[in-house]
Structures are given as structure tokens and as C-alpha cells.
Amino acid sequence: MHLEILVEDQSGSIILENILAKISASLPLDLTYRIHAYSGLGKLPKNLSKDNDPQKRALLSKLPMLLRGYGRSSGEQSAVVIVVDSDKNDCKMLKNELNEVLDSCLIPPKTAFCIAIEEIEAWLLGDRQALLEAYPQAKTSVLEGYIQDSICNTWELLADAIVKEMSKGLKKKGYPEIGIRKCEWAEKVSPNMNIQNNSSPSFQHFVNKITEFAGQSA
After folding, report:
1. pTM above 0.85, yes or no
2. Domain identity same for 77 and 183
3. Are 174 and 81 found together in one domain?
4. Which residue range(s) make up the domain with 172?
5. 3-class secondary structure per residue, the chain
6. Both 31 and 60 in a single domain?
7. Mind listing the pLDDT tens digit for each residue in 102-150?
């Protein structure tokens, strides 16, 4: 089975690369994949049948065109996995909107939508041991106050667990610096993550979908 995996940013790509390497190594069947990182989440276009502006690089902005293309070119032994953050959006509503995009395709590809709640940093927080191995000085008082997969300004909580009030400093510097730090956290924590021992339900949903697709290999 071959998977085309689309994720909204570079830090997510780093996390997925390390997770998928672990999943692939644990499977008895061959699994190949390519990860495509985009420039943010963006918004779905109002006209799902029209090609998007090529200048737009956000994932949702390009998604209808991408799924139509995969539908025309993919075979039985391939699938598309879309990984996005829910942010402040209602997860069920977001899932319905994504399914509407898939349903609008003349030839819909085999697809799974995996929504990280609230942000993909929740998957890092779901493996406390991996996080503390990467950042042994992390504040357990902050980590213990986190409710897994809750809407709570997730990346800010992770930042503040690593360094007191780090999130305030990053917000003052703006997104480029935030993106750099998110990539740093991904690079340090995700290599040590245990795919069988993560308290994030959205992480486990992703792992289950990948395993399910792999099991469909001939």
C-alpha cells in the first residue's frame, strides 16, 4: 500500500515522518508513503469544483483540486491521508466539510481525514515520557494541568511547560519564530514517541487508519 499524506505545516511533517517510520517498521506488510507539507491550514474554497489560485499554498485552499487529481491517478493500492489541526473549529463540523470535498470528486480517492485536537502538539503532549526525555526540565505542574485533546491553546501550553512564559515571548516575535520552535519540539520529541503508548485519542485514530490501510495491501 502506498499513502500520500498531506499535512498543514513543516512541524507536522517532522512528527509524521518519525511516527510513520515506527508504524512501518512494526507492520508485516510493505508500506510506502510520501509526506507533503503545506503553508498552513487555510480555508476551503466556496466553489469546490473550480481549480484554486496557484499562489495559495495553504492545505485546505488546495484540497479540492488535490483530491480530484488523486482520484484520477490513484489505484486500489494507494490512499490519501489528510492530517489537519482542528484549532478552534468544531471537530464534527470540520469532518463534515472535509467529507463534502471528497464527495464532490467525480472519482473520489480512498481517503482518511485525521484531525489533531486542538493542534498536532497534542500528540507530543500525549507521550509524557518522550516529552520529558527531550525536555527533562519541563514543568510537570503545567503538564499535569493539561487535559488530553482539549481546546486549551495547546502549543502555548507546551511552550510554557518547557520554559516559563515562552508562549508570550513567541507571540511577540510572530509566526516565523513560532514555526521554528514548533519544528524544534517536533524534532526533539517525536523520535522517542511510543506509538502504542500515547494518551491522545486523535493520535491513536491516525495510527489506526494507517494500520487499516496497510492491512488492505494485497
Report:
1. yes
2. no
3. no
4. 121-192
5. CEEEEEECCHHHHHHHHHHHHHHHHHCCCCCEEEEEECCCCCCCCCCCCCCCCCCCCCHHHHHHHHHHHHHHHCCCCEEEEEEEECCCCCHHHHHHHHHHHHHCCCCCCCEEEEEECCCCHHHHHCCHHHHHHHCCCCCHHHHHCCCCCCCCCHHHHHHHHHCCCHHHHHHHHCHHHHHHHHHHHHHHHHHHCCCCCCCCHHHHHHHHHHHHHHCCCC
6. yes
7. 999 999 999 999 999 999 999 999 999 999 999 999 999 999 999 999 9
